[in-house]
Amino acid sequence: MVITGIQKELEGLGDAAQAAILQRFFKTGPGEYGAGDRFRGIRVPVLRGLAKKYQDVSQAEAGRLLQSPFHEDRLLALLLLIRHYDRGGPAAREEIHRYYLEHTRFVNNWDLVDASAPQLVGHYLADRPKETLTRLAASRDLWERRIAIIATFYFIKQNAFAETLRMARVLLADPEDLIHKAVGWMLREVQKRETGVAEAFLHEHYRQMPRTMLRYAIERLPAARRQAYLKGTIGEPGK
Predict the structure, then answer these.
(1) What is the rounded distance in angstroms from the CA atom of residue 100 to the CA atom of residue 107?
(2) Residue 216 pLDDT greater than 80, yes or no
(3) Tens digit of pLDDT for each residue in 42-57?
(4) Is the dihedral of CA 219, 223, 228, 231 positive or negative?
(5) Predicted confidence (pLDDT) per residue in 4-45, tens digit
(6) So what's the pLDDT on residue 10?
(7) Is residue 64 a contact partner of residue 73, using CB atoms and an 8 Å limit?
(8) Angle of the 90-102 helix axis to the 59-66 helix axis, nearest 10
(9) Distance of CA 17 to CAs 14, 20, 40, 198, Å?
(10) Helices marked H in the chain — which ranges?
(11) How far apart are CA 202 and CA 209, in angstroms?
């Protein structure tokens, strides 16, 4: 099988010392968000090169690679699926989108979500109803909730912000720090393109936002305005 050969190549590219670093970085210890994940120790640029090298691997083979216990294998599989998606027609894109949503249990760390959700979910839903985002945002699974907000990055790049703000409202009280960071990041991306839209949202919600979410969202604002948000003085007379 083609995938067997790819995995042998991945094994040969592995670096045990780098794998140990990645396992700590991606929180794979007991009780951590990436608990039990396994790493080969391969850097992302190398994986992107392999995605180009193996771009003609079938969609089915890429899907099998997505089910690997190794993190880098799964990232490579997602990069291959994105290449298939980009080259595919409407039927192929729908099939890949559905496959992705049916296999989110393998898209189980923040980098995997961030590399794939804007294209395989956001792009697909751009001119379609957005109920999928609502369902994902209500999921008990951390990574599906992150997919819901990160998918809207595609819309942001098209200067469409409504879905990002809607998902941010839904996830405002989420208990997970990785969701706080993702929502704050997307709000910051909105702010980079349309400051008024982002600040209107912040002005309405900043007192309810988790501190991490707020800090990420206001990172690019002038220092005095950042401090006003953090101190809760935005909107007061003379501030």
Answers:
(1) 8
(2) yes
(3) 999 999 999 999 999 9
(4) positive
(5) 999 999 999 999 999 999 999 999 999 999 999 999 999 999
(6) 98
(7) no
(8) 10
(9) 9, 5, 9, 42
(10) 2-13, 16-25, 44-53, 59-66, 71-87, 90-102, 110-117, 124-125, 131-137, 142-150, 153-157, 162-170, 177-193, 195-205, 211-217, 223-231
(11) 9
pTM of the complete model:
0.95
- Residue 56, pLDDT score: 94
Residue 59 makes CB contacts below 8 A (sequence gap 6+) with 81, 84, 92, 95, 96, 99
User: Distance (Å, rounded) from C-alpha 103 to C-alpha 195?
Assistant: 36
Identity (one letter) of the amino acid at 48?
A: R
What's the chain's length in residues?
239
CA distance 117 to 107: 9
Closest CA to 120 of 138, 135, 102: 102
The identity of residue 137, as a single letter, is A
Domains of the chain: 1-103 (no CATH), 109-239 (1.25.10.90)
Check residue 234 and give its pLDDT. Answer: 84
- pLDDT band for position 2 (cuts 50, 70, 90): confident
For 47, phi and psi rounded to 5 degrees?
-65, -40
